[in-house]
């Protein structure tokens, strides 16, 4: 790597107030990200927006859970703690990263299942309205769910055409809304481009039309500050294995605005969403508050890892995390302009940080091949068809030097 870029990365790392947090993560013992540690061949991890690194505290925590809470307390653990964890950890997440008061967030199920349940409930809460609004480049799960629910309920999907380098803007949404709109589904940060939607304005427009809004927070929670209460968001769902570092398949979360909870009837009426689950009664009576959106047994083990990351975000502050995130993406874009653009690479993410989340996408016709080669060499971005190489930058575990090493490797792969 040329000395100028190396020095620039080193200077940014030296000035980074979050630099010390890297030592808390598995595989990040190296100071600058230039050497693989004895436990991993990874020299540059640029996929934190898909799967976050584990915190070092998680391994001992899970081992202690097996020996103590599970192994010793056994089934007593349900009464002593586990049954309350979905709402307890939900409230911890709400305080640290969602800008939401207690009693509105629940951990459990996958993103897909929670989106299905809440989209179905939202549609039912707007009888007589016949359309669901979603954009054409939203994440596949979101689009597929909307298509399925529309088919089940005899509704129409109102598609808003967006491009792979953008997302759902206020202007596009306003043109799609009408008195037929039941629900708007939007990704706060677009999975492909990193476009950061104006969620407060999209919420205001949806409410003006009499519709409910459901926000997919998968690519923003833990990276971008959220103010769900202040913005008046109705419903939000997000995963916990990206910037919340909950681990592969860790359970998702759902937020439902307090004054809307009693109005919504969730469609998967499991026993633990019942007002008195252990009464084993003959008919379903929904629980009060967020527990009504629970269906089955809480995924206790899957919730434990994310709790560590939520606590770390709370300790450093989500706005400090965002400042580092912006600095990382600015550095990556500048690097791409200087080094990769002459090789035909195009930045297809917003250049204005106000409209950009925590990752950027670079396009080149050779990137499918390049990403496969990079993985073999311990440089880990990800690929999104047709030509996108995503650079996912997790602020608490990613160094500027790590980014520079990874993007230099991209240059080398393109010139081979």
TrEMBL record:
The keyword Hydrolase applies. The keyword Hydrolase applies. It holds the Pfam family Aminotran_5. GO terms for biological process: anthranilate metabolic process; L-tryptophan catabolic process to kynurenine; NAD+ biosynthetic process. Pathway: Amino-acid degradation; L-kynurenine degradation; L-alanine and anthranilate from L-kynurenine: step 1/1; Cofactor biosynthesis; NAD(+) biosynthesis; quinolinate from L-kynurenine: step 2/3. Keywords: Hydrolase, Pyridine nucleotide biosynthesis, Pyridoxal phosphate. Gene3D superfamilies: Aspartate Aminotransferase, domain 1 (3.90.1150.10), Type I PLP-dependent aspartate aminotransferase-like (Major domain) (3.40.640.10). Catalyzes the cleavage of L-kynurenine (L-Kyn) and L-3-hydroxykynurenine (L-3OHKyn) into anthranilic acid (AA) and 3-hydroxyanthranilic acid (3-OHAA), respectively. This is Kynureninase. It catalyses: L-kynurenine + H2O = anthranilate + L-alanine + H(+); 3-hydroxy-L-kynurenine + H2O = 3-hydroxyanthranilate + L-alanine + H(+). Its EC number is 3.7.1.3. Its cofactor is pyridoxal 5'-phosphate. Homodimer. Belongs to the kynureninase family. InterPro entries: Aminotrans_V_dom, Kynureninase, PyrdxlP-dep_Trfase, PyrdxlP-dep_Trfase_major, PyrdxlP-dep_Trfase_small. One of its GO terms (molecular function) is kynureninase activity. GO terms for cellular component: cytoplasm. Residues 129-333 form the Aminotransferase class V domain.
């Amino acid at each position: 790597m040329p000395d100028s870029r190396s020095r620039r990365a080193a200077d940014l790392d030296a000035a980074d107030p979050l630099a010390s947090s890297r030592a808390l993560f598995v595989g990040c013992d190296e100071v600058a990200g230039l050497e693989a540690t004895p436990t991993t061949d990874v020299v540059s991890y640029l996929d934190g927006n898909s799967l976050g690194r584990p915190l070092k505290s998680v391994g001992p925590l899970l081992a202690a859970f097996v020996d103590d809470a599970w192994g010793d307390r056994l089934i007593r653990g349900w009464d002593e703690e586990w049954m309350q964890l979905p709402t307890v950890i939900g409230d911890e997440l709400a305080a640290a990263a969602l800008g939401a008061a207690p009693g509105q967030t629940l951990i459990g199920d996958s993103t897909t299942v929670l989106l299905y349940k809440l989209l179905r409930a939202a549609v039912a809460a707007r009888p007589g309205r016949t359309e669901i609004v979603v954009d054409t480049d939203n994440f596949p799960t979101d689009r597929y769910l909307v298509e399925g629910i529309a088919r089940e309920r005899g509704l129409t999907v109102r598609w808003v055409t967006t491009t792979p380098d953008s997302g759902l803007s206020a202007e596009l949404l306003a043109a799609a809304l009408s008195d037929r709109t039941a629900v708007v589904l939007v990704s706060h940060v677009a999975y492909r481009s990193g476009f950061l939607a104006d969620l407060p304005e999209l919420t205001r427009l949806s409410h003006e039309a009499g519709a409910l809004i459901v926000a997919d927070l998968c690519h923003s929670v833990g990276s971008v500050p959220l103010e769900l209460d202040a913005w008046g968001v109705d419903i939000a769902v997000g995963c916990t294995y990206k910037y919340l570092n909950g681990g592969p398949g860790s359970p998702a979360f759902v937020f439902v605005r307090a004054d809307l909870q009693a109005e919504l009837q969730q469609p998967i009426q499991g026993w633990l969403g019942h007002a008195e689950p252990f009464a084993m009664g003959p008919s379903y009576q929904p629980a009060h508050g967020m527990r009504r959106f629970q269906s089955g047994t809480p995924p206790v083990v899957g919730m434990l890892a994310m709790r560590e990351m939520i606590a770390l975000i709370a300790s450093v502050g989500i706005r400090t995390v965002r400042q580092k995130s912006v600095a990382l993406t600015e550095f990556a874009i500048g690097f791409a302009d200087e080094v990769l653009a002459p090789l035909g690479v195009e930045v297809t993410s917003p250049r204005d940080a106000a409209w950009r989340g925590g990752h950027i996408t670079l396009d080149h016709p050779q990137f499918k091949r390049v990403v496969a080669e990079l993985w073999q060499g311990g440089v880990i971005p990800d690929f999104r068809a047709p030509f996108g190489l995503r650079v996912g930058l997790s602020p608490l575990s990613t160094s500027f030097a790590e980014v520079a090493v990874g993007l230099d490797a991209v240059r080398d792969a393109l010139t081979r």
